[in-house]
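Entry:
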Amino acid sequence: MDLTVPEYAYMFGFLQADGHLARGTGQKGRLTVEISIRDIDLLRSLQELTPYYSSITERTRSTNFAAAHTSAIWTLCALEARTTLNELGLPYGRKSKTIAPPDGPFSRRDYLRGLIDADGSVGLTSKGFPFVSLTTASAAIASFMSGYGEDVTGVARDVGGNTRDGVRNVLYMMELAQRLAADLYYPGCLALERKCVAADSLSAWVRPPGMRAAHTRRRWTTPEDRTLLELNDCKAAAHALGRSTQSCSLRLWRLRNGGASLPGDR
């Protein structure tokens, strides 16, 4: 499972968000993914990418949202496959707060698209404004999306969780959402068909006359990154660079954790 291959990077992101690894007795266990029956074609694509036997079944049950909801379930039991996924960063059992981007090289935009297809949204608000969002309980995943979003749009997002349960909602809107959606959902990419359609629809939006554009934060430069690393103090760096302490703190975290390339690597 080479995560530099776009399809596998997407698959892994989707599984981290929507998959479930369960242990059984001995070496038994299974990976399961359950999604709406309308998205069954995606499960078939994941099945084709997997060189192990797996099955796709359907079930209909009552939920809080519908009296009869039909879903599709992909099940994979092969120990070797489960071991590979686990070593790459898909934990057994509950995982919402512990998942993080892979340690090694991987296709960043395809991985992020997998996360958004599973736990995010793309489309237009009730007022017709474009948006791309990801909801996650993982601080590492939220920071990754904010960092990638900054690379594409020039704007980072606050990734602090809410006070009740720590869940984070990373949101891009208007022109920023248009840029991010166009980058993530490129022609021919592996994705949920309905989200590809939604992402494509964002390109038609035009800011209404008289609507003020939001302030766009400036991009980080190589000299600024060097200064931040040399000072190693967010408050001092904020004063020296004319940035906020929060912005310096997030940028320093990304530089130290591989979310942004170090000045010497550019």
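The mean pLDDT is 88.
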